[in-house]
């Protein structure tokens, strides 16, 4: 089960919570069950990327004939219905009162996130991630999928690392995950760039804080969190993705 990297980041002004004992804990399994192991109010930042439920909108891969097919399919895990409201009690339970929530989502889910989370937090906002090189669209009858939405929610007194007004734009612009960063085996269809996650983590947590990703995929949030001196708990249901996350973070297999 959990595997660890034995380092801690001391911060006298902001002592770490009771769990985890080590800096990185990666759990393979269903976060509906594993989240119960996390003590109340012990997480400083939930930074996560749950399923988008886009299966109903997918037209499948597009094969133009003159090149390899454009990947337009959705993963099997995205076909499992994800209801943001059902996760709210556990999210509220584990998050500290000073904590922040960042959750990637899609246009089709935004209303459901807002309906459930706006009444449950003092503030509900949105960050836009603009991809400078989104996948092309064959038919010129709509927008490219160049933006992703990120739900941001918190209560008064939350950790916030802003200085100047120009740092307060709810907008991040980077290329999609590619090149050496993009894992080939296993290939995760929604691997997020570490640069985007780093920005979110810098905004919403401090060194030594505990970051949780209950839908960690191949561990991009963990790579960013560990690189910034945060502690991290990641949960992933697919053993191949969880193993890839362990390799990326230099965490040994549970055996
Ligand atoms: C959108 S992907 C996250 C990708 C991640 N941001 C990355 O960069 O690798 C969502 C992940 O949640 C996982 N997942 C879905 N339901 C889950 C559950 N109940 N418990 C744990 N993981 C789950 C899927 O297997 C998938 O890898």
The outline comes out as globular
Order of helices and strands: EEHEHEHEEEHEHEH
Bound molecules: S-adenosylmethionine
Strand content: 15-25%
**How do the strands line up in the largest sheet?**
1-2-9-8-3-4-6-5-7
Give the strand tally. Answer: 9
Main pleated-sheet profile: 9 strands, mixed
> What structural class should be given to the helix and strand makeup?
alpha/beta
DSSP summary: helix tally = 6
Mean of residue pLDDT values? 87
> Which residues form runs of ≥5 with pLDDT under 50?
1-18
Residue share in helices? 10-25%
What gap, in angstroms, lies between the N and C termini?
8 Å
Rg (CA only): 18 Å
Description:
With 255 residues, the protein is an alpha/beta fold. It has 6 helices and 9 strands. It has helices at 31-34, 84-94, 107-117, 194-204, 220-227, 239-249; strands at 3-5, 24-28, 43-48, 95-105, 123-131, 147-154, 171-174, 210-213, 231-236. Strands 1-2-9-8-3-4-6-5-7 form a 9-stranded mixed sheet. The longest helix is centred in the middle third of the chain and has 11 residues, at 84-94. Mean pLDDT is 87; it is low at 1-18. S-adenosylmethionine (SAM) is lined by residues 30-32, 49-51, 77, 188, 190-192, 215, 217-218, 220, 235-238, 241.
Topology:
Blueprint: E1 3-5, E2 24-28, H1 31-34, E3 43-48, H2 84-94, E4 95-105, H3 107-117, E5 123-131, E6 147-154, E7 171-174, H4 194-204, E8 210-213, H5 220-227, E9 231-236, H6 239-249
Parallel strand pairs: 2-9, 3-4, 3-8, 5-7, 8-9
Antiparallel strand pairs: 1-2, 4-6, 5-6
Helix pairs in contact: 4-5
